[in-house]
Write a structure and sequence with these properties.
Blueprint (H helix, E strand, L loop, with lengths): L1 H46 L5 H21 L6 E7 L2 E5 L21 E9 L4 E9 L7 H41 L18 H47 L1 H5 L1 H31 L9 E4 H18 L3 E6 L4 E4 L1 H18 L5 E8 L5 E6 L31 H11 L2 E7 L6 E7 L4
Length: 446
């Protein structure tokens, strides 16, 4: 309503100045027509007396006296000057106090408030010349009376426009208020879709809210499943820790050094496994962060991969595994450094874990067309059956029958980290059909 009122006031102000300008032009046009008529009328009266200069002067004085009386009765405040010449001699001047040259409307300067409209009529045969100059006073438009006259219509029409508008807007917003009340009355656990709105204007809003609640419902279900899986995964190492801690406190463990060492190793293994699961859970949550939370920066992918491979080299050397890295050219892309490190760390650690003793891991970074880069990890391990290559990206999923320990979170972390960096991961057979090749494709950025 305030905006509607502001528009009406703005239109009224623009109209006010337009009316003033139009009134000024109209007044000048009418004044010019009046001057022409009066000058010609006076000339017609005086032509018959052209041979008697005194009678011309007397007649002009009489006619102008009658007009002056008429202007007085009409409360006419503008000044009018009439002058008559006969053969170049000035016979009559109704306002001798005025200067000979008056500021005419089409020649007036910027500081002249009152201007004049002038008309001159000639009679060549008699030698008579009649000049009539009329003052144009525009100041009345800016007086209280003039402004009130000009803005009277908008002032009186504003309430008549606002009241119906207020009623119509209130009536039109009633469904929206009902819709807001229906949402407000819901519990925080109720994410069921809202009923379809019969109003065409509200249908997009209802559809957008329903889509949002559907995404929230899926997100909450995933979080519940995540907590359930995390609790289940932590239950085993925590149970082992509890059992081994209990055995360490028993006398039998103290009397048997071998038993004591075995229980201590089991306790350390349980703590290590629980710590690994917790670290992987934290890495998974960081990789799941929204893309817009942290700005991407230009990174040299080859340098980052080389640094992470160097960090993983001691683990590979313990098992006699060699890591070959090949980068044909530098690859610079807008990337998120922390998540990309998690991506490389998980893929190289999986390759080391599942490679046989003395095996070989090949890592390559190859540029492709349109500015994309392909990063691949090839090992000589048992590989993954083709039917399970999508399943292994699910959280806590582990292939049955494997001897290597783990939490089942490595590939899930890698997939989310790749998505955060605008990349995708695919799994396929390794070279010569042996082992596994994990390929990360980084697409070009706009």
């Amino acid at each position: 309503m305030l905006g509607f009122s502001a528009v009406i006031v703005l239109v009224s102000i623009v109209a006010f100045f337009f009316v003033i300008r139009e009134a000024q032009d109209t007044q000048r046009a009418r004044t010019d027509a009046e001057n022409t008529a009066h000058a010609r009328e006076l000339l017609l009266h005086l032509v018959a007396l052209a041979d008697k200069p005194e009678r011309v002067r007397t007649a002009a004085e009489s006619i102008e006296a009658v007009r002056a009386e008429m202007f007085r009765v009409l409360d006419y405040h503008s000044r009018v000057r009439t002058r008559v010449w006969l053969h170049g001699q000035l016979l009559f001047n109704s306002l001798p106090d005025l200067p000979d040259k008056l500021p005419l409307s089409d020649e007036a300067g910027p500081h002249e408030t009152n201007t004049w409209v002038q008309r001159v009529e000639h009679d060549t045969a008699s030698g008579l010349v009649v000049e009539r100059s009329h003052e144009v006073d525009d100041r009345w438009m800016f007086t209280v009376t003039g402004i009130t006259f000009l803005v009277r219509s908008p002032i009186f029409s504003l309430p008549l426009l606002l009241l119906p508008a207020w009623f119509i807007v209130g009536l039109g917003l009633r469904p929206l208020r009902s819709f807001a009340a229906a949402i407000e009355s819901r519990s925080d656990q109720d994410l069921t879709p809202l009923p379809a709105s019969p109003y065409r204007e509200l249908s997009p809003l209802v559809a957008a809210i329903n889509h949002l609640m559907a995404r929230l419902r899926i997100r909450i279900e995933n979080e519940h499943q995540f907590l359930t899986d995390a609790a289940h995964e932590l239950k085993t190492p925590l149970a082992a820790i509890q059992i081994n801690a209990h055995l360490l406190q028993s006398r039998n463990a103290e009397a048997d050094p071998a038993r004591h060492a075995q229980v201590s190793a089991g306790l350390r293994e349980g703590v290590s496994r629980a710590n690994h699961v917790v670290q992987q859970l934290l890495a998974l949550e960081r990789a799941h962060a929204d893309l817009g939370q942290e700005a991407l920066s230009l990174q040299h992918l080859d340098v980052l991969v080389r640094d992470r491979l160097a960090a993983a080299a001691p683990l590979a050397l313990q098992r006699g595994i060699s890591i070959d890295f090949k980068a044909e050219d530098a690859c610079e892309l807008p990337l998120h450094q922390e998540s990309l490190q998690a991506l490389v760390d998980n893929l190289i650690s999986n390759a080391i874990k599942y490679s046989p003793e003395g095996g070989r891991i090949a890592v390559s970074l190859l540029p492709c067309s349109e500015g994309a880069c392909i990063l691949s990890f090839s090992d000589q391990g048992p590989g993954i059956p083709e039917a399970l290559r999508q399943k292994v990206f699910e959280r806590f999923f582990r292939i049955a029958g494997q001897d290597q320990g783990g939490s089942g979170l490595g590939l899930a972390i890698a997939e989310r980290a790749a998505a955060r960096n605008g990349a995708s991961i695919s799994l396929e057979d390794g070279p010569d059909g042996r082992g596994l090749r994990a390929t990360v494709t980084f697409g070009p950025r706009a």
